Amino acid sequence: MAAKDRPWLMRTYAGHSTAEASNELYRRNLAKGQTGLSVAFDLPTQTGYDPDHVLARGEVGRVGVPVSHLGDMRRLFAGIPLERTNTSMTINATAMWLLALYQVVAEEQGLDEAGVAKLAGTTQNDIVKEYLSRGTYVFPPGPSLRLTTDTIAYTVGKMPKWNPVNICSYHLQEAGATPVQEIAYAMATATAVLDAVRDSGQVPPEKLGEVVGRISFFVNAGVRFVEEMCKMRAFTRIWDTLTRERYGIEDPRQRRFRYGVQVNSLGLTEAQPENNVQRIVLEMLAVTLSKDARARAVQLPAWNEALGLPRPWDQQWSLRIQQVLAYESDLLEHPDLFAGSHVVEARVAELVEGATAEMAHIEKLGGAVAAVESGYLKARLVASHAERRARIESGEERIVGVNCHTETEPSPLTADLDAAIMTVDPDVEARVVAAMHEWRLSRDEPRVQRALTELKAAAAGTANLMPASLECARAGATTGEWAWALRDVFGEFRAPTGVGGAPVAVPAAETGGEAALTAVRDRAAGTAAELGSGRLRLLVGKPGLDGHSNGAEQIAVRARDAGFEVVYQGIRLTPEQIAAAAVAEDVHCVGLSILSGSHAELVPDVLDRLRRAGAGDVPVVVGGIIPAADAETLRAAGVAAVFTPKDFGITQIIGRIVDEIRRANELDPQEAPA
C-alpha cells in the first residue's frame, strides 16, 4: 500500500466579542486537533473604523474579533507561539495593517529578523472581490491595489513563507457567480495583482516566480459537488497555463494551484437546518476527493449559521467532520480517483473553455480593475444571482426543506432556538470602546502623530507603505487612525451596485413565476393609483457595516421589475442617512437588510429617526439573519415585517411589502390571487 498523504490544514473560522474571548476559543480549538487558525475580524476592523465611530455602532465584536491596536493583537495571540502557528487572516482593505500588528506581536514574543522570516500563514488581501461581493473595501481600486502590491513585495523579502494574497472567489459564488464566472473573475484578479507587482519595480524579475509561488486562492464549494470538483481541476489547469505563458514561470512547483476552501455558508438553510450537515459533507468532498486538485486547507461552517452565531460545540462538530474523513476513511491512501474519467475530463474542458473566453473579454475591457470601475463585473453577478433565485422560486432548482419536502418532525436541535446559537453580550461594545480610550491615554502621543504623518507622506509618494505601517503599529496607532490617514490621501470609494444593469429574470410562465410577478405588479400599480402616486417608492437600505448586499440587491431588482421606483444607494449607511433619504425621496416603504447581527441596535434607531422626522407612518420591513426572539422584539418596536433566510420567495416578499404599504395607509386589503 502506498504511503498515506498528509491531511490538509484543518481550520475553523472563528473570532467574536473580544480579543480575550477569541484567544480562549483559539486555544480550545487547537487542543481539539485543529491544525491552523483562521481569524474572523469584526466589521469595524475590516473596514478601518475604530469601535467608537458612528458606523461601528452595533457591529463591534459581532461577526469577528475587534482589533483596534497592538494591545488587542497581543491579547488575541497570548500563549499561542506564532513561530509554530499557521494563521489565516480574513482581512482585505486593512490587510497590511493587521499583518503589521501580527509581525510586531511576533517580535514581542522574541522572534528576530530570521524568526519573522519563518512566519507562516495567509492574509486574504484580495480587494477586487470586495467591490463585487463582500463589501469591506475602503479606498478606490487603484490605491487598494497598491496596498496589496506593497504587502506582497514586502513579504517576498522579509516573510518568504507567508502567503501575502489569497485570491478569493468564495464570495463571488455567494454573490451569484456561475463556475465559469468564479474561475474567470478570480483569474482576472490574480492577473491584475501579478501585473501590478511586476510593473511596480519592487520585485526583481528573477524573483517573480517566488511571488507566483506564494499566491494562494480561497474558493467556495457548493453542494453540486461533482461540478465543484471539476471546477477545481479547471482552476488548476488554467493557473498552470497562465503562469507559464503570461509570466514565464518555468518551475512547476511555483505554478502549482494552491488553495484553501470554506464550503458554502450562504447556501445553508434556516428551514430544517439539520440538513445542513449533509450539505457540508458533500461540499467538503468536492475539494478533497480529487488528489490532483485537493485543497491545502479546509474550514467548514457550522450547521446553524443560517440561524445565528455558532457555539463552540457547533464549530467542534464541523472540525470532527473533517477529522473523520481524514483519519477514519481511506481517502488519503489512493492516487487521483478521477484520472482517465471521460465524464470529468469533458466537464473540465468545458469549464476551461468558458472561463478562458470570459477572461479574454475582461482583458479587452482593460482588466479586472477597469471591469470593476465600469460596473460590468457587478452587473453580471447580480444578473446571475437573479437567474438562480428565479430557478429556486420556480422549483426548477430544488432545495430540500425549503421548496420541496417541507414536511418535518419537530427538531430537537432547534427546540430552544435561543439556546441553539451563541449571542454576543451587548455590553461588549462599551467595554471595547472604553479599553480603546484607555489605550489612547497611555500611549506616546507625539510618536503616534509622527508615525501617522510619515504614513501620509509615504502614501502621497511611491514608497512601500509597510515600513510606515509597522512604525504606526509599534507607536500605538489605532486601526481607525491608520485607515483615516490613508483616506486623507487616497479618498474613499462607493462601488457600483449592479442593480440598474441587471436584466429581468423571473421563472418561466409555465411555472407560475411570471404570473405571480404580474399579479404583484398589478397590485403595486393599483395601490400607487389609490395613493395618487405614479409608482410606489421603496428605499432599500444597508445600515452599518454589513457588506453582504446580495439579498438587498435581489429585493431591489425584483421590486424594480414589479413596477416600484427603487432607491438603493449601496452599503455602509448610517441610520441618519437612511432616514433622511426616506424623507427626501418621500418613499412608501423602507426595507432594511442586515446580516451582521447589528439589527437590535440599528433598526430601532432608524425607526426613531423616521418618527422624529414626521415619517413614522412609513412602514419599515427588515431582512437578515435574525433570531426568532429578536424578530419578535423588532415587531414590538414597530417593524412591519421581518424576513429571514426561510423566506426565499422574493416575489412573495414584494407582495407582502405592497400589503404593508396598504395597511399603513389604511387602504382596503386587496384580493390576493389564488
What does this structure look like?
This protein has a five-stranded parallel β-sheet. Strands 2-3-4-5-6 form a five-stranded parallel β-sheet, with helices on one face. The termini are far apart. The radius of gyration is 25 Å and the shape is globular. About 1% of the residues have low confidence. The chain has 26 helices and 15 strands. With 674 residues, the chain is an alpha/beta fold. α24 runs parallel beside α25. It is 49% helix and 9% strand.
Unreliable runs: 507-511
Structural class: alpha/beta
Rg over C-alpha atoms, rounded to the nearest angstrom: 25 Å
In which order are the strands of the major sheet placed? 1-10-9-8-7
Secondary structure layout:
Layout: E1 9-11, E2 13-14, H1 19-31, E3 37-40, H2 43-47, H3 70-76, E4 86-90, H4 95-108, H5 113-116, E5 120-123, H6 128-134, H7 141-158, E6 162-163, E7 166-168, H8 170-174, H9 179-200, H10 208-214, E8 216-221, H11 225-245, E9 259-263, H12 275-286, E10 297-299, H13 312-328, H14 342-364, H15 368-373, H16 376-394, H17 428-442, H18 445-460, H19 466-475, H20 479-490, H21 513-530, E11 537-541, H22 550-561, E12 565-568, H23 575-584, E13 589-594, H24 599-612, E14 620-624, H25 628-637, E15 641-643, H26 650-664
Parallel strand pairs: 1-10, 2-3, 3-4, 4-5, 5-6, 7-8, 8-9, 9-10, 11-12, 11-13, 13-14, 14-15
